Amino acid sequence: MAAKAAKAAAATTILFFLSLFASPIAGEPLNFSGYYNFNDPSPSDTLYDGFLLALPRVSSNSGNLRKNPGPPVLLLHGLFVLFLLRNWLLLTSLFASHKQAGDSWFLNSPEESLGFILADHGFDVWVGNVRGTRWSQRHVSLSVKDKDFWDWSWQELALHDLPAMLRYVNSVTNSKVFVVGHSQGTLMSLAGFTQRDIAEMVEAAGLLSPVGYLGHISSELILDMVNLHLDQACLFLVSILLSSIEIGESPFRVIFILLFHNMSVYWRNCCFNNSRVDFYLEFEPHPSSTKNLNHLFQMIRKDTFSKYDYGVFKNLMLYGQLKPPEFQIGDIPISLPLWIAYGGKDALADVTDVERAIKELKSTPDLVFLEKYGHLDFIVSVNAKEDMYDSLISFFKSREKSSSFK
C-alpha cells in the first residue's frame, strides 16, 4: 500500500510540474525547403463553433502540386509524448502559439519520417492540426485566453475538425482523401468514420497504434492519474499555486528528458534514436484541453467508446438519455478500406483493446502487428519504413491507380 501511495504521489507531482513548467519557447516549424515544398498553412472551413484550422501542404520538390498533384492524404497527429493538462484560462499564456502538432510526422530524417516518405511517393500530403495546436489557434470571436476557447474534447475533433479538414482538401483536390492517424488521430478517425457523411469523403485509412477502447491501458503512471482523478484536481491545484511559482524552460526539459527515456507513459519503445531526444524536445508537446483529458480518462474508467459524459442531467438535455451515446465501430462502412498497425509493447493502445475494436468492424482490415513496438515507435522508429510504412503505401496505392505515383 505504501508503495502504491508513493507512486500515486509521484504521479501527482510529475503531472503538476509538467503543467507548470511547459516552456513558452519551442522550436520553429520544421524547414526542409531545399528538398520539399511546405506551403503556408491554409485555413479550412470555419467550423460551426468558429474555429479556423490550418492545413499545411507538403510535396517533394520533384513534383508540382499545381500541375500534377498526386492523391491527397491527410495526416492526423496524436497527443505527443504525454497528456498535457491545459488549464482553460490560467495556463493559456504558457502554451499560446508556441506548440507543434502536425510536425510530429516530420521528426526524423526524410528517409524515416512518414510525411516525407508519402511526399516522395507522389502523394499530396496535407498536415492536419486540430483546434488549439500551434497552427490552429484562430477563432472568429474567441481568444486562446478565453475559457470557452478550450471547451472541447476529442468528440469535437472527430465530429467537427475532421470533416472540416476533409471537406477542404476535397474541395481543393476534387478527390476523396486518404487518411493516416496516430493515437488521438485514430480515435478521431474511428469515431468520425461511424458517420456516413464523413466516411464517404475518405478513400482509405491507415491507423497507427489505434485508440478506440482504453480499458486495458497498462501505463502505471496514467492509471495512477486516472485513479486520483487528476483531470479534475489539476485545475484546482494550478489555480491556487500558479501565481507563486516562477515558470522556466529548464525544469520542464529535465522532467521531459527523464520521462522520454523512462517511457513510463508509453512503455518500452524499441526503435527510436536516443541521440535525437534533444531534437525532439525542440518540438515539445502541443496543448490540449483539460476536457479532452477528462474525456480520455472517462474512457479508461468506464471501458467505453462514448461521447463526453456530462452527468445525468446534462446528458438528458444534450443527448436525450442518461448515459452518453456510444460510438458504434460496426457502423463504419464495410466499403471503407482500413489498414491497421499495432504493437505488442504499447501501454496505451493495448493489444486487447485494439483487437476488440477490430472484431467490431464489419470489414476485414489489413493488419500489421509489431511485437516490439511501443506507442511512440509508430512515428519515430528508425525502422518504421521497412516495418510498416512500405506496407501502408502499398495498401494506398492498391486503392488508387493514379499515374502520379512514383
UniProtKB/TrEMBL annotation:
Signal peptide per UniProt: 1-27
UniProt similarity note: Belongs to the AB hydrolase superfamily. Lipase family.
Family annotation (Pfam families): Abhydrolase_1
InterPro entries in the cross-refs: AB_hydrolase_1 (IPR000073), AB_hydrolase_fold (IPR029058), Lipase_euk (IPR025483)
UniProtKB keywords: Glycoprotein, Hydrolase, Lipid degradation, Lipid metabolism, Membrane, Signal, Transmembrane, Transmembrane helix
Membrane-spanning segments: 74-96
Residues at the catalytic site: 183, 346, 375
Gene Ontology MF terms in the entry: hydrolase activity, acting on ester bonds
Domain AB hydrolase-1: 71-191
PANTHER family, per database record: LYSOSOMAL ACID LIPASE-RELATED
Organism of provenance: Ficus carica
BP GO annotations: lipid catabolic process
Protein name: Lipase
